[in-house]
Amino acid sequence: MSKSTIKFYEIPKWGRYLRGKWEASFASHLSTVEKEAIYFKSFLWHLCSWEKVDCYEKHDAIKMFEKQEKMKCTIFYEHTEEAYLIDNAKNLSVKDLPHDQFHMYYGDMYVMDWNGQWTFIMTHESECGPYFINASRKSKKRSK
Fold it and tell me: pTM of the prediction?
């Protein structure tokens, strides 16, 4: 971590809960059938790669994350129950994030503000992401 003022507090076994909260905050506009069609249960970030939500991508996503007002947020992963709470995240930067693109458990990482207002996603795929979603802009595309 680059900033000594940033403290990551481990919150064991919160991964499943946070993935559910993330789904409710950012994917509630999709039906079960729509989620199945994009293999949502395999990777939550498919919401972005399948263009089912308004989001920022690549460098724009990083810029949005960097300029976002951050107070309290969580970090969790797709395939593990590990999760972290950052109580004072105002200086949190991309370079501080515990992401390992080449590790099975830490390659798909989600940063979500405590109130589910925004999320920043880093994936294991070099062609996909990062992504940034603002919950107030989420309901973009709905397939018929």
Answer: 0.88
